[in-house]
Amino acid sequence: MKILYNIVLTLVIIGAINWLLIGLFDFDLVATLFGAMSVISRIIYTLVGISGIISIGLYFRINE
Q: In terms of residue numbers, what domain contains 20?
């Protein structure tokens, strides 16, 4: 599970950095690297979203 949580945390950080770039500079790094709404971009966005949902569970584990 520790490996899964490390992957989840990495994806959440990637997503957060991408949103920071969008908010500050109107620059979508994922779309720039892989194409706007290409299959790969959609997979990355989906994995980041799932990681965010999994992170909700991690939040409760920290507070135990």
A: 2-62
Write the DSSP symbol of residue 1: -
Of 30, 33, 34, 36, give the one whose Cα is nearest residue 14.
30
Domain count, the chain: 1
Q: Quote the mean pLDDT of the chain.
A: 91
Could you read off the pLDDT of 16-44 as tens digits, one per residue?
999 999 999 999 999 999 999 999 999 99
Q: What's the pLDDT at 44?
A: 95
Nearest-angstrom CA–CA distance, 29 and 43 = 14
CA dist., res. 4 & res. 51, Å (int): 10
With beta carbons less than 8 A apart as the criterion, state whether 41 and 30 touch.
yes
